[in-house]
Fold L-histidine N(Alpha)-methyltransferase.
Amino acid sequence: MHAVSSTLSLPEAACTPVGSEVYRGLTSRPKTLCPWLFYDQRGSELFEAITELPEYYLTRTERAIFAEHGDEMIAAAAAESGPLTMIELGAGTATKTGLLLRAAIRSQGAVDYYPIDVSASALAAAEQHIAEGIPGVRIESRVGDYTQGIEPIPCEGRRLVLYIGSSIGNFEPADAVQVLREARRILAPGDHLLLGADRAKDASVLIPAYDDAAGVTADFNKNVLTRIHRELGADFNLRTFRHRARWNQEQSRIEMHLESLIAQTVSIPALHLEVRFARGETIHTENSYKFTPESIASIIERAGFALTRCWSDPRQWFGVYLATV
Ligand code: AVI
C-alpha cells in the first residue's frame, strides 16, 4: 500500500506549484519530490552551509579551477569584436562568479553581468556584494526560472553564459540537454557557454559529500518535510525519517532519499491526502549526476554546442567546459 487520495476533485492547494508537485510526487510509485522544493529560505541557508563542508569538495574545487584558469577562460571566450557580456543561469548569490568577473575586468576594464535566478533575495545579495567588492561590474539582475525560457540579452561583443556549480547534474540527462538548448537560443555564432560539472569518482569520496559527518545534508534533505508541514499542514514526524545517500553506479548518480523508519500514514490536510509509508520505503528527493568527459561532451553536443576547451583540478574531480555556438 502506498498513497491514497481521499477526494476526486483536487483541492485548491493542489494547484499551486508546491501543492501540485507534492501531490504528484507523493502519489507516485516510487515516491519522489523535485529538488527545487529544497530551496525555501532555510533550505538555501543549509545549501550555503553544505558548500563549506569539508566533505563537499565541489564548490571549493570549482573555485580553485576558476582561480587558476579564469583568465584563460575569459580570453578563450572573448573576441576582437567587442567586450564580453556575462550571463549567469541560477546565479544565486554569485559568490564564485567574482573570480570570473574579476578576470573579465582585468581583460577589458569593465563587464556587463546579467545574473538570472528565481530568488529575488539571492540576487539582491549578489548585487550588494558585487557593488561593494568588484568595481567595474554593471549588473542587471533578472528574476525568473531559466528552465522556462530566457529573455534575449543585449550585447555589443560576445556573450558568455555561465552555468556553474554542477547544477546541470540535478537534471535527468534529456532535461539537461533541454536546459542547455534554452541557453543556446539566446546566443549568436561565436558566443560561448561555460559549464561546471562534477566528475564521476570513487563512492568513498562521493557518499560523504552527500552524507556529511555534521549532518548538514541530512537537515537539508529533511527540510523538505518541514516545508510541506509549514505550507500544506502535513504532520510528518521528522524523527521517523532518515536521510540516505546512495551511489547508483549504473546511472552514474548520487541519489538522495528520505527513508521511513516505520510503517506510518502521514496526512496532508491542504491536499486532502493521506500518504501511507511501508517501513523502509523512501521518498526519492534528488539525483546528482556525475559525468565522465565523454558523457558531458555528449550532453553539450546534443544541445547544439561545439566543445572547445576544458579545465580540471589536479585530482580530476571537477570539470569546467567551454563550448561555442
Ligand atoms: C545544487 N546542486 C549542484 C547540489 C549537488 O551537489 O547536486 C545540491 C546538493 N544536494 C546535496 N548536497 C548538495
User: Anything to note?
Assistant: The chain is about 35% helix and 25% strand. Residues 1-7 have pLDDT under 50 and may be disordered.
